[in-house]
Amino acid sequence: MSVELEDRVRAALNDKAVEIEVRGIDPEGVFARVRERRARRRTARAVVATLAVALLGAGVIARHSATSVTAGHAASPPAVPLTDPAMITLDAPGWSVNYIGTVNKDYTEYQFTDGTRTLQVGFYPLASREGNSTNPTEVTVRGAHGVTTDEGAPRYRVDWNEQGHTWEADGEPYTDVNEFLALLDHVRILDQASWEATLPNGVAATILANTDKGVSWYPDKGVACFGPQQSMPCN
Amino acid sequence: MQPTPLSELGVRSGAMAPTITPSSQAAASSTPIGFVALYRDRYDAMVRLAALLVDRTEQAEEIVQDAFAALYERWDHVDVPAAYVRTVVVNRCRDALRRRRVAAALTLGRVQEATEPTGDLLHDALAALPARQRSVLILRFYEDLPNDDVARLLKLRPGTVKSLVHRGLSTLREVIEP
């Protein structure tokens, strides 16, 4: 590829960058965001503490300690084979799935929420995300070796390899990384029948029939498909 | 694209656990010295980079403010603050593009938002490239980063970056030299 073309691209990008009208800098806006993030963290801590007290009061933790969020994140997950696309659920009280996206055969993504917190779990080809963490910290996640990416609390992100895929989990707001990692113990790999049972009628079939196009599902909006360049309806 | 060297900004010299109070004046007085200097030096460049990546200036400004907020909270733990901010900016632009693509599929059911044609073949061809190819070209030729750094920022393999650069340039060549 000629240097001349590269230079023209470089010049075109610089021209475009120069045309961008950047508003005045606003350090106070940054501080306001920091205050907001800290307030969100305090709220999250309060919610978690309230939930813990409520659960303790009901004796739920005593009866179901094996599935408690505080059970730790070193336990090995059950050996259900991970399929393509990945079929999972988040088996924790108050959590539900609010998005499934199969962008192509190499990338599937789930998003879960409990109304306050979010958890996004993505599946990539094995080892495709190595060496890309910012200020990486080695951790144990679902019994495997994982590496966190520094996103700035209360947001956390971690990569690890499991069942022939690289998993990426990303979510906020969490009180600390341990709370985030402990929640990942509750991500359960499902067989196809169990996965289909977690979704409304027809959704699983539509997702599976359109993975070559890229397909997404939101509970309140249904299924949509999109190609690499242009969005398109499924049918 | 020649930012002030960080050593001249005194970055890290004022590192301390930042404390934010409701008063902006109090917040500023407890802010690490290097943070504001870095912010003033890099804000403009980061907004331009983000705006090139997401093609929306307002969203770019949001992303950059958020990235600096993340840096502020991690100030004591970050070795190279300028690199940290750029990584967070690129990560968030990448997330924004992915979510925009999904949202477009859901709400429009048709096409991605088209950028207004400028009449310049090369500019328009750049804007029409798939997001991943465009992102790679921006980091490679606007930020002047080597392929390995682009790969780390976009969470791609170096070979994939080389391939995306080649494909992107080939597409541009076809457009401007038919």
Helix content of chain B: 55-70%
Class per helix and strand makeup of chain B: mainly alpha
Query: What's the oligomerization state?
Result: heterodimer
Question: Helix count of chain A?
Answer: 6
The total beta strand count of chain A reads 12
Structural class of chain A, please? alpha+beta
Number of domains of chain B: 2
Catalogue the unreliable spans of chain A.
60-72, 228-232
Low-pLDDT windows of residues of chain B: 1-29, 108-112
Rg result of chain A: 21 Å
Rounded average pLDDT of chain A: 78
Distance between the termini of chain A: 40 Å
The number of helical segments of chain B is 9
Main beta sheet of chain B: strand number and arrangement? none
C-alpha termini separation of chain B = 32 Å
**Mean pLDDT reading of chain B:** 76
Shape of chain A: globular
Shape of chain B: globular
Give, in order, the helices and strands of chain A. HHHEEEEEEEEHEHHEEE
User: Which strand-content bin applies to the residues of chain B?
Assistant: under 5%
How are the SSEs ordered, and which strands pair?
The complex is a heterodimer of chains A (235) and B (178).
Chain A: H1 3-19, H2 27-58, H3 60-63, E1 88-90, E2 96-104, E3 107-113, E4 118-125, E5 137-141, E6 144-149, E7 156-162, E8 165-172, H4 177-184, E9 187-189, H5 192-197, H6 203-209, E10 215-218, E11 222-226, E12 231-232
Antiparallel strand pairs in A: 1-9, 2-3, 2-10, 3-4, 4-8, 5-6, 6-7, 7-8, 10-11, 11-12
Chain B: H1 6-9, H2 24-29, H3 33-54, H4 57-74, H5 81-107, H6 121-128, H7 131-142, H8 147-154, H9 158-176
Helix pairs in contact in B: 3-4, 3-5, 4-5, 6-9, 7-8, 7-9, 8-9
Notes on the protein architecture:
Chain A is 31% helix and 29% strand. Chain A is built from six helices and twelve strands. The radius of gyration of chain A is 21 Å and the shape is globular. Chain A is an alpha+beta fold and 235 residues long. The longest helix of chain A has 32 residues, at 27-58. Chain A starts with a helix and ends with a strand. By secondary structure, chain B is mostly helical. Chain B folds into two domains: 1-113, no CATH class; 115-178, Orthogonal Bundle (Arc Repressor Mutant, subunit A). Chain B is built from nine helices and no strands. Chain B has helices at residues 6-9, 24-29, 33-54, 57-74, 81-107, 121-128, 131-142, 147-154, 158-176. The longest helix of chain B has 27 residues, at 81-107. Chain B starts with 5 loop residues before the first helix and ends with a helix. In chain B, 42% of the residues are buried. The chains are: A alpha+beta (235), B mainly alpha (178).
